[in-house]
Structures are given as C-alpha cells and as structure tokens.
Specification:
five-stranded antiparallel beta sheet; TATA-Binding Protein; alpha+beta; 11 strands; Arc Repressor Mutant, subunit A; 541 residues
C-alpha cells in the first residue's frame, strides 16, 4: 500500500510505473489523469487520489483528454491478489458483468451480490456496475475512433443496454458526445482503419520495460498448427497470430513484437488513439542489452465475428502477454539474489505469459506430460483438425473463395476444440498411453460439467485441489496451470527439467526439495523466476 504523499511524488515525477495503479483527480479542473500525465503538475492541495477510473468518474470527474487515463495498463494488483476483490476485478475485466450481470458475478465468486457490492465499494470506491460501465466507455471510445460503425451499433457492441445510456456515459466520462469523440480523431488527421467488417486496430498498453523477444520465442515454440503461429515482419518485428473462442463468437488476433532496432532516446511517440505524447526513455540496463525503447504499447489487430467480444478479447490478450505486470517490482525482488540477480539484469522486462483459454491450456498441459514440447504441439494440432471448428467464411461473416480465406487468415484454419468435444474423443485419435488418454478425457469431462473451474475469478487453491483430485493430474500440471491459466505470479516448478537445469547452471541445487527451499526467497514472484531459468537455457542453447 502507498500513501497519498507517495502518490503525489509519483505524479510530480510523471512516473509511468504507477499508471493504472491509481488515478489523480484535480478539484480545480474537474478532470482525472494518469500519474504520468504530461500536463503541468497540479498543487498537492487540489489533488485527490482514486484506486480506479470508475471511482473518479463516480465522484464527478471526467477523463483527461491529453493523457487518456482510461487507456492505461491495468493495476498489477489484480494479477496476484487471490481475495474476493482481486478475483472480482479479473472477472469484470473478462466482461462477466456485461454478460451475466452482478448476480452472475456474485455466483461465480460464491458470495451474495450485496457482499460483492459492499467490498468493492469499500476498497475501490466503485461497485461492479460502475467498474463495468467504465470498461464499456473505454470500449466505446475505441470503436468510435478506430471504426466507421454507426454510433448506434457502437453503443450495443460496447455493451450498453440502450443508446441513451451510451450517450449519457460518453458525455459524462469524456465531456464529449460520441460524434465529438469520433471527430476528435479525424481532426488530427488520423485514419479509421477498417479493412473488413469487425476488424479493429488498437494498442495494448503496458508498463515497461518488456522483453517481447522472449514472449515470441516462448509462444512460437508452443504454437499449435492451425490455431496459432508466429510470423516474421519488417524491422525484426514478429507477429503472434491465433484464433480465439469468445462468448459471442470467435476472432483472429494479431499482436506485434517491438522492433529490434531501438528508437532514439527521447524520441516522441504519439498515440493517435490515446491522444498522449510520451518520451521513449529506456533505462541503462535496457540500452546495454540492446532492448528496444519502451514506447508503452504493442500494436494489435482483431477481427471479430461479434463486436460485443471486444472487451473480453482485449482482456485475454493482455493476460497472455502479461501486460499488466510491474516488471520493476519483480526485478527488484529477484535481483537481490546473488546468482539470479545478474540473469534478471540481462533480461529486463521479462514477462510470465498467461493464456487466452484456460480449458485449452489444461488440455495441452496433459498432452505434454512426459513428451517433448514439439511432440505435444504436433498432437494438439492433430486434435484441433479432428475436433476443432474450422474457420469457414472468414471472421467477417462473409463468404469467399478458399484462396481469399487463406489470404485473410494465413496459417490459421481452426478453433481449438472444446472440452466437451474432447471428453468423448476416439482413443484412436489420442496417440498416447491409455493412462494419459483417461486423464485427458476425465479432465475434459470435469471442465465440461463444471466439476473443475478455471475461469478468471476462480479461487486458485480450490481449483488446484479440484485438479489434483482427478486421476492422472499431478503437481507439475497443476503448477503449470496455476502459473499460466490462472495467472498466479508466485508458482515454482521444482520438478521441471528446465528449472532444474537452469538452477544447476547458476550453481544452485537442482533437486526438487532443495530447489523449492532456495526459491522461497523469490516469493511472491516465483513464476517470473521460472521464466528467467527457462530463458537462461535458451541463451545457452
């Protein structure tokens, strides 16, 4: 926890590490900003601090047009907190309130709607409806400024129940009409990118630094053919592409890495969507390692069959790339270790990738038991072709030739199979021992009927116990799922071969018991230590 004086010092120094952690409302202007807002620093007496944008909006403040506080990374607090508030924030981010209402949110959390409302309001200054409303406002701005959709369609695609509610919210949050927000971008000469219906270009904000090379290496090694791929681009950029199964439809997502050639120190980066200018200021460690300048966002493109899935798709991609993390806090903790510290310094901004679909990851984790990553990827690809839904007709919902579809989707051809489909898979399609076949089908049956839950707001300890109760699911599989499917930042895998070899390269004991004891001092960021050890082996290899 930080006090208001510390918050003000962060505002005075325009410290972008606190963007999304809290928001500054200025009583004399009636606006609220991110801590790194480039405007003149307000006097301390005029500043009030709020933990969420929704709380600032609820107090009557409107979003700053210069720094666009609604476009900041999410608070890293929601990554590691396992209490009611943390779980609720992850579910709200995934769009549960928009789809199921407050009652649905409360049911998933195992509390009454009144308890959820009371705890969120007490700690965050806003209840679930207000938090979801702020999220809808951001989605509406994105659609208004990146598409040519009619305003009425934008309202319902962003999750609003009526056009009147949409208009009132946009005016209150941005002090602009929806048409005014759209005209703002056109006035600056920005172009709405709409290559096909349902297609969006956006920027995924992060607090830096970020090691996108490790992310791309990690995802490319595990990419399931037909479902995901990593392809090269210009300036050393690589693009991760994959199909997404979403609540209302499906999508194709593309996320670019940072260019390998660093931008000049002090070069101005202008975000035409967020309307914010920021300096690229890579740290000394980043410059020494040749890490690209921290520009603050990753370019992303989405093709959605249903625009109502925008918020959920963005939330899941952010989890996949771990964009809400605070890498400096992680580095401060891990860097104190005499053996691991130099490794951390060589790879600033290393992230712990999550996943876009916990059920998919659970299936792949079982497929990968006791075989190589490459073999598991091949087997997953075969199952996707056999049991996954094909990408027919493109994500825009329009028919076209096979050649045109291939041009639109590249190497992406299918959606990953559902747990229901794999629960009754033909044993002839499962090239694995009978015991693992039974484990896979048992896991899929448990996921399909809700015996095991792996959604964004599940209690991690409860989910781990449910998984361990299944035949063929051991501690490594549970730990891996906690780390990636459930986004737990404090998981260590002492029995993992890569972890053992990485520890031994550092001169540390590699046997599981000694390794677990040694890793205790890396809490609460042991998942990041695991990735540092895996990346160390990649450097050596």
């Amino acid at each position: 926890m930080i006090d208001d004086e510390t918050r003000y010092r962060a505002v005075d120094s325009r410290d972008s590490r606190f963007d999304g952690v809290f928001f500054t409302a200025v009583t004399t202007t009636g606006i609220y900003c991110r801590p790194s807002c480039p405007a003149v620093t307000p006097k301390r007496v005029n500043c009030t601090f709020y933990p969420t944008a929704a709380a600032a909006q609820g107090a009557g403040f409107r979003a700053c047009r210069r720094c666009r506080p609604d476009s900041v990374p999410g608070s890293p607090e929601w990554n590691h907190r396992a209490d009611l508030v943390g779980r609720a924030m992850r579910l709200i981010g995934d769009g549960v309130v928009d789809r199921e209402g407050v009652a649905g949110l409360a049911t998933r959390l195992g509390y009454s709607a009144r308890q959820v409302q009371r705890q969120l309001t007490a700690e965050l200054g806003a209840g679930p409806i207000a938090l979801a409303r702020a999220q809808r406002a951001q989605a509406a701005r994105l659609l208004l400024q990146t598409t040519e959709l009619p305003v009425t369609e934008v309202a319902f695609a962003a999750g609003f129940a009526s056009v009147r509610q949409f208009n009132d919210t946009v005016r209150e949050v941005y002090d602009r009409t929806p048409s005014g927000l759209r005209a703002e971008v056109r006035g600056r000469g920005a172009r709405s990118v709409v290559p096909s219906p349902g297609s969006l270009s956006l920027r995924l904000a992060y607090r830096g630094p970020i090691d996108t090379e490790h992310l791309m290496d990690f995802l490319a090694l595990r990419a399931v053919p037909g479902v995901e791929e990593v392809v090269p681009g210009g300036r050393g950029v690589r693009t991760y592409r994959r199909t997404l199964v979403l609540p209302h439809g499906h999508a194709i997502a593309e996320v670019d890495s940072l260019p390998v050639d660093s931008l000049p120190v002090g070069s101005l980066q202008v975000d035409p969507l967020a309307v914010t200018a920021r300096e690229a200021r890579p740290g000394a460690a980043g410059r020494a390692a040749g890490v690209p300048a921290d520009r603050g966002w990753l370019d992303c493109r989405l093709r959605l069959t249903d625009l109502r899935d925008l918020t959920t798709a963005v939330h899941r991609l952010r989890a996949l790339f771990d964009l809400d993390a605070d890498p400096q806090t992680v580095a401060d903790q891990l860097g104190r270790h005499p053996a691991l510290g130099p490794v951390v310094a060589r790879r600033p901004g290393l992230r712990s990738p999550g996943h876009v679909d916990p059920h998919e990851l659970a299936v792949r984790a079982v497929l990968g038991q006791q075989i190589t990553v490459a073999a598991a990827r091949t087997l997953a690809g075969r199952l996707a072709v056999r049991y996954g839904a094909p990408l027919s007709g493109g994500t825009s919902g329009t028919a076209g030739s096979a050649a045109a579809q291939e041009e639109r989707s590249g190497g992406l051809t299918v959606l990953f199979p559902t747990a229901e489909a794999l629960a009754t898979a033909d044993p002839a399609d499962l090239a694995m021992p009978v015991s693992r076949q039974n484990a896979l089908r048992g896991l899929c049956a448990a996921l399909a009927d809700g015996t095991v839950r792996l959604d964004a707001g599940v209690d991690r300890e409860q989910a781990a116990a449910q998984l361990l109760a299944l035949r063929g699911i051991g501690p490594w599989t549970v730990g891996y799922l906690r780390m990636r499917a459930l986004g737990d930042p404090d998981v260590f895998l002492p029995g993992d071969v890569g972890v053992r070899h990485g520890l031994e390269r550092l001169g540390l004991p590699g046997d599981p018991k000694a390794a677990a004891l040694a890793a205790a001092q890396w809490a609460p960021w042991r998942s990041y230590a695991v990735h540092q050890l895996w990346a160390l082996l990649g450097e050596a290899g």
